[in-house]
Structures are given as C-alpha cells and as structure tokens.
C-alpha cells in the first residue's frame, strides 16, 4: 500500500503519465538529510505546542534517526509511487514508527514550506563547498605570482600589446575577481539565512508552533521569514545563487580563455602539465587545454541555468505554484558543474609552466614603452597633449627603422621634442617602466607584493567562514 500525502477527496489514483510528470525524487532525493533534520525540529515544536507527548517525541526522534541512517546507507530508497522526497520520507517514517505516531508529524507543515526550507539548507552547505573550491583556485594563481616575482609580460588592451606589467600583477587581477565571487556568495548567504519552515502551505499555522525555534535548530542565523506567503513563494535566493555561480563561471572562463591563447604555438607563454591536458585520438603530437575549454564551455551552461530559472519565476502569481518544482535542477546543476571544474582549474593553474624568458622578450615589443616617453616628458613639464605627439613621432621613427624605442639615437629623440634628452632612457627599459608605475594598485614590484600579501590574507579570512 503506497503512501500518498493526499487522496481523501479523490475517487481514483493519478494516471500513469500524470504521476510520471509529477515525479521529482530523481533530483530532490539529495534533500533527504535536510528533510529529516527539518522533521526533527518540527517534532520538537509540536511537542512544545502540546501536540506530541514527551514519549511520542522520543519515539519520533528515534524513528527519524533510524530513517536517516537507512537513507545514508542506501537501505531506504524512494520508489516510483513516491511523488517526491517528502512523500518518500513520510512512508519511511510510517514504516518505522507506525502510522498512528508517524501520521502526527505532518500537522502544521506543508511540502511548500518544507521544500523552500530544505532547498535553502542544501544550497547554503553547497555554497560553502564552492567557496572553498574558489579559494583553491585563487591560491593557485597567487602561488604562481609568488613563484615568479620578477616575471614580466606585455599587458594588453584589445588583445594588442599595451604596456609591460608584472606577470604577478596580471594573475592577481584574476584573483581579485574570484575573491569578489567568494564575498558575493557570503553576502548571498546572509540574505538566505532565513527559514520558511512554519509558513505552512502559505498562511502560517493555527497550532501554536514556533518557527523561530525551528529556524535556530536548522542553523538559520537570521531566524524565521517575516511573511509566510513570501516564505513559500519566493525563489530570488535560488536565482541570486544561480547568478553568483554563473558570474563565477564567467570569471573562470576569462582565466581559461587566456590559458588557451597562452598555450598556442604562436604565443608559447605556457606549457601545461601532462596531468591537466589531454591528447588527440588521431594526431599524436596534440596536447590540448581541455580543462580550460571545459571551463569556457560550462560558463555557457551556467548562464543558461540562470536565465532558465528567471524565466520559470517570471510572472508566477503568489503563493506556491507547481512551476516552482523546476527551480532546483538548474541550481543543482550549476553547483555540480563547479564541483567538477574548480579542482581541475586549481590543478591546471597551479602546475602551469611559464616561459619567462620569452615573456620578457615580448614585453617591450610593439612599442609598449611609448607611454613611458610621454609620461617622462610630462614630468619635465611638457603638456601631455604635446608629449603624446612627441612619443608618437618616436614610434614612427623607430618603426621606419625597424628598431625598438630604446634604440633611437640622441638626435632622433631630440628631433621628436627638444626636451627629450638621453635621460629618458631610464624609463625605456621594461624594469624601469614597471618600477615607475608605483601608484596604489599599479604594477611596480612593491605594489604587487603588497597586493599579493593582501590576497593571501583574504584567502585566510574567507577560509575561516
Ligand atoms: N516537490 C515540490 C517542489 O519541489 C514540492 C511539493 C509541493 N507540491 C504541492 N502540490 N504543493 O516544489
């Protein structure tokens, strides 16, 4: 005799196709441990409200413990007649404590407030795991910065050579974005730390239950939600989570795209460690950056999860609608993809070999020191508009002779502007240029070292979350 949570007003059971459409245990079963934790807390407030004796509470808790162990071991599983995780676990409880006692637990709660609560609980735990994985990626990038304190490369805008920068400065830029992803997850968590349990179907309960006690027992530091309709109907926490995860994936895809470019024969900036690359089934020479490509690809998938969920939520009237059952799979999927991706990204980035001699050779190429000439002239009192023209003329002369800016003769420099004395050559080297950019956040070695220390400090602080 399958357990149904409804049926009194129905003369027949659901059609097969109806039941198949309705079924959600294949994805909501992962909420089972949270469902049981919710049931333990709910039993306690039923007891406090005088609806369960002390003995009944004790038997209920012991039954839930056995059920939790059986779920954990796999001894208890959902069957096809179980509509969802809540239905399956009610059957499991009735089988363990009998229908008289087991049938009392549903008083004052609904699957609507249950599922809204359990989804938040699952997601809050998953978010901490994701954040830890992001910090491993940040650690790998900052570790590379630390391992190459003097390495330089041509900084780019429009993918064209722009100005030389320290490799560490560039890698730490990715760290900054990823650390913001982590603080965004923490901000999200603070907004999500409110429990809908006790909202019932939508209107609250007449049974004298204590939603604040349930919230406290389930680790919702914000307490119970302030509005039972909102508690059961709102899913902005799910959409915001999908955004935070999609933004993270997009930031990872930007690192990944650079690794893919850096790894080409034309760039030859990096070599991938064998453990984090793949081969070709036909071309024996191939060593492909699949981790980075999957990062780039999965970012599209996570964007899709966000937009799909927003479309599901759009224009739903209050309060609960069954559409909301579609809220979970996109978010579960985003988390699962990141569970796979983050360790691989940390591994790939942490084991990259940077070809620092080649990077140093390329750093001044493409006249990346032209801005240094202009800024040097400004420091001699020349208006920037004039200095820009003069430096541009130096570039034109050097280009015509196919030499670098630091190969220009004293006469050629003076011809571009009378203030351009041979002393300008102090900034016409890559280290000179880099050392001169010592503003806060700039690429000078001292500034980059300070920044790197702050990044390591932020990693430590976030890990204590
Ligand atoms: N499985 C549903 C969900 O994920 C919860 C059940 C609510 N069902 C209902 N008929 N009120 O949203």
Automatic annotation (TrEMBL):
SUPFAM superfamilies: L-aspartase-like. Coiled coil: none annotated. It is an enzyme of class 4 (lyase). Pathway: Amino-acid biosynthesis; L-arginine biosynthesis; L-arginine from L-ornithine and carbamoyl phosphate: step 3/3. CDD domains: Argininosuccinate_lyase (cd01359). Its EC number is 4.3.2.1. The keyword Amino-acid biosynthesis applies. Residues 367-435 form the Argininosuccinate lyase C-terminal domain. One of its GO terms (molecular function) is argininosuccinate lyase activity. It is found in: Cytoplasm. It catalyses: 2-(N(omega)-L-arginino)succinate = fumarate + L-arginine. GO terms for cellular component: cytosol. InterPro entries: Arg_succ_lyase_C (IPR029419), Argininosuccinate_lyase (IPR009049), Fumarase/histidase_N (IPR024083), Fumarate_lyase_CS (IPR020557), Fumarate_lyase_fam (IPR000362), Fumarate_lyase_N (IPR022761), L-Aspartase-like (IPR008948). Keywords: Amino-acid biosynthesis, Arginine biosynthesis, Cytoplasm, Lyase. Residues 15-304 form the Fumarate lyase N-terminal domain. It holds the Pfam family Lyase_1. GO terms for biological process: L-arginine biosynthetic process via ornithine. PANTHER family: ARGININOSUCCINATE LYASE. Belongs to the lyase 1 family. Argininosuccinate lyase subfamily. This is Argininosuccinate lyase. It comes from Saccharopolyspora gloriosae. The lineage of its organism: Bacteria, Bacillati, Actinomycetota, Actinomycetes, Pseudonocardiales. The gene is argH.
């Amino acid at each position: 005799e399958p357990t149904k949570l409804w049926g009194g007003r129905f003369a027949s059971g659901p059609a097969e196709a109806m039941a198949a459409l309705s079924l959600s245990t294949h994805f909501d079963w992962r909420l089972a441990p949270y469902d049981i934790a919710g049931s333990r807390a709910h039993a306690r407030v039923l007891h406090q409200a005088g609806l369960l004796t002390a003995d009944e509470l004790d038997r209920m808790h012991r039954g839930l413990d056995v059920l939790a162990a059986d779920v954990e071991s796999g001894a208890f599983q959902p069957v096809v007649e179980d509509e969802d995780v809540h239905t399956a676990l009610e059957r499991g409880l009735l089988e363990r404590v009998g229908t008289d006692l087991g049938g009392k637990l549903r008083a004052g709660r609904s699957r609507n407030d249950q599922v809204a609560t359990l989804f938040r609980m699952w997601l809050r735990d998953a978010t901490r795991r994701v954040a830890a994985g992001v910090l491993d990626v940040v650690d790998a990038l900052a570790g590379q910065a630390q391992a190459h304190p003097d390495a330089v490369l041509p900084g780019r805008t429009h993918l064209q050579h722009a100005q030389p920068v320290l490799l560490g400065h560039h890698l730490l830029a990715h760290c900054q974005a990823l650390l913001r992803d982590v603080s965004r997850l923490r901000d999200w968590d603070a907004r999500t730390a409110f429990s809908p349990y006790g909202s019932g179907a939508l209107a609250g309960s007449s049974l004298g239950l204590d939603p604040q006690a349930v919230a406290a027992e389930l680790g919702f530091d914000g307490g119970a939600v302030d509005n039972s309709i909102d508690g059961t109907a709102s899913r902005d926490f799910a959409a915001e989570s999908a955004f935070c995860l999609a933004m993270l994936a997009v930031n990872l895809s930007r690192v990944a795209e650079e690794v893919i470019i850096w790894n080409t024969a034309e760039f030859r900036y990096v070599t991938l460690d064998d453990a984090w690359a793949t081969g070709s089934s036909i071309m024996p020479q191939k060593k492909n950056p699949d981790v980075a490509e999957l990062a780039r690809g999965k970012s599209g998938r996570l964007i899709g999860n966000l937009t799909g969920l927003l479309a599901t939520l759009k224009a739903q009237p209050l309060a609960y609608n069954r559409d909301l059952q579609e809220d979970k799979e996109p978010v579960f999927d985003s988390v699962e993809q990141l569970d796979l991706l983050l360790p691989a990204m940390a591994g790939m980035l942490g084991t990259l070999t940077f070809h620092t001699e080649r990077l140093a050779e390329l750093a001044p190429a493409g006249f990346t020191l032209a801005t240094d000439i202009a800024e040097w002239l400004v420091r001699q009192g020349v208006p920037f508009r004039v200095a820009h023209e003069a430096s541009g003329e130096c570039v034109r002369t050097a280009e015509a002779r196919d030499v670098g800016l630091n190969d220009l003769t004293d006469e050629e420099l003076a011809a571009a502007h009378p203030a351009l004395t041979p002393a300008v050559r102090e900034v016409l080297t890559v280290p000179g240029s880099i050392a001169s950019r010592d503003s806060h956040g700039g690429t000078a070695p001292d500034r980059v070292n300070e920044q790197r220390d702050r990044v390591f400090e932020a990693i430590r602080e976030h890990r204590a979350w």
